[in-house]
Design goal:
single chain; six-stranded mixed β-sheet; 15 helices; 34% helix; 18% strand; globular
Length: 447
């Protein structure tokens, strides 16, 4: 496994002025940006990096230098890569966002709604040229991965970049299309973690995304002009079968003591969050997890949805992997490599899980919209959550294994324009309240 930790630069002068930065290098870190970069360094200080890569732009390179000064094993030299520069917006760079919206209303609308279609005609030495900023950024990200991954097989590397290029790096790794460019968020000095089994196109897992807890921010802040609602998607705490490695499925295994402790830590983590509605799977382990979290929100009624229950593993349930392999040879390997093609004997397939869990999710969105709710808790299961994350990002069931969901982990999904608008994955698989660090150390267990 190659572990890649991705960090966005600290707050810059253009960030606080709400200017388009692009590839201009006029923007520098604020005092807060420098302070936050130091906090990133402390959060990563016990991780040994084989290599550190940075954008050449000042705001990113300075962030990388400050991070490096905090690392305990500070042996890596920062390598500057042109493939990590920010998205190129030459006609807008340096302008206030409000002025861009006013001066280029049609293009700005395309940028927000169909970013992959944004086109700019720019002057070039040989004349005018056509630029598709987001499409070019995604090609740039792919080139970076193709160069870097083969060089660092089995190692741990750090990347310090920008909002746009970081989103493109994560998206190209997972197969998220350029049309969903705005479907991911990267906060200043936030930390994301990717695990690669090989090169680009091989198995990859998003271990976590957009962690901000090291900055004393429980959850990433809402985007400007947010008018909709936020959902916190949580996986239930650990069960004894998780710990043992047994397949649970729809056998109603309760939380073990560690699982209750994990739910308690999630409760403390979210105690200052203004929850105003909550849903859970009907099964015992997510229901108890939700009830423990809601002890700090006693006025909220927990609603149960059968569509959020775990996938039925049928004849696999209650068995260890060795028993499944003996009884159904080769099927576990197919489940790990082509999950969308597997029909669980006497159970479900991913398409069936997809249909019922997405229907349940849509009912949650409608309930939030109709009742004018702001922040909701949704507690479900490993397979259910992974399926919902695929749906939210416009991916298919084939991408099921691209997402990690630790016991007691929190993911954040915003609907800034309401139920009918595009969702934004603000953060995924936050486990800092469980492990005290940026890496997921929970016992994921079997599904």
């Amino acid at each position: 496994m190659t572990r890649v930790i991705i960090v966005r630069h600290g707050q810059s002068t253009y960030n606080i002025e709400r200017r388009i930065q692009g590839r201009t290098d006029a923007s520098t870190l604020t005092d807060k940006g420098r302070s936050d970069a130091g906090k990133v360094g402390k959060a990563l200080s016990n991780i040994a990096f084989t290599a550190i890569y940075s954008s050449p732009l000042n705001r990113a390179k300075t962030t990388a230098e400050i991070i490096c000064s905090e690392l305990l094993e500070h042996s890596s030299v920062i390598q500057v890569s042109e493939h990590l520069v920010e998205v190129d917006l030459p006609l807008w760079a340096g302008m206030l966002s409000l002025d861009v919206k006013e001066k280029f209303p049609d293009d700005y609308s395309i940028w927000k709604k169909r970013p992959h279609e944004l086109q700019m005609i720019v002057n070039h030495a040989q004349g005018k040229r056509e630029l598709f900023p987001v499409l070019a950024l995604y090609e740039q990200a792919k080139q970076f991965w193709q160069e870097i991954l083969s060089r660092h097989q089995g190692e741990t590397i750090l990347i310090v970049g920008h909002n746009g290029i970081n989103r493109a790096l994560i998206s190209t790794a997972l197969g998220i299309p350029p049309s969903s460019y705005h479907g991911l968020q990267q906060s200043n000095c936030a930390i994301s973690v990717l695990n690669f089994a090989g090169g680009l196109g091989d198995m990859v897992q998003l271990d976590s995304m957009n962690q901000t807890q090291h900055l004393e921010d429980t959850l990433p802040t809402l985007r400007p002009n947010h008018q909709g609602f936020r959902l916190l998607l949580v996986r239930h705490g650990e069960t004894e079968w998780n710990r043992q490695g047994k397949f649970q499925g729809q056998i109603d295994v309760p939380l073990n003591d560690n699982g209750r402790a994990q739910a308690g830590k999630a409760r403390e983590f979210l105690q200052e969050v203004a929850l105003d509605f909550a849903f859970s799977s009907t099964m015992a382990r997510p229901k108890e997890t939700a009830e423990i979290i809601l002890q700090k929100h006693a006025d909220i009624k927990l609603e149960l949805l059968d569509g959020l229950r775990e996938i039925s593993h049928g004849s696999w349930e209650g068995k260890f992997e060795s028993e499944i392999e003996q009884e159904f040879p080769g099927e576990l390997e197919r489940w790990r490599t082509v999950p969308a093609e597997v029909q669980m004997p006497q159970g479900e397939n991913l398409q069936q899980l997809w249909e019922r869990s997405v229907a349940a999710w849509q009912s949650i969105l409608q309930s939030a919209e109709v009742n004018q709710r702001q922040i909701g808790l949704v507690v479900a299961h490993d397979a259910t959550n992974k399926t919902l994350l695929c749906h939210i990002l416009g991916l298919s069931p084939e991408n099921f294994w691209n997402f990690r969901q630790g016991n007691g982990a929190v993911s954040v999904i915003d609907y800034p324009l309401g139920a009918s608008g595009l969702p934004v994955l603000q953060a995924m698989n936050i486990t800092s309240h469980l492990s005290g660090g940026v890496l997921d150390k929970t016992v994921a267990g079997a599904l």
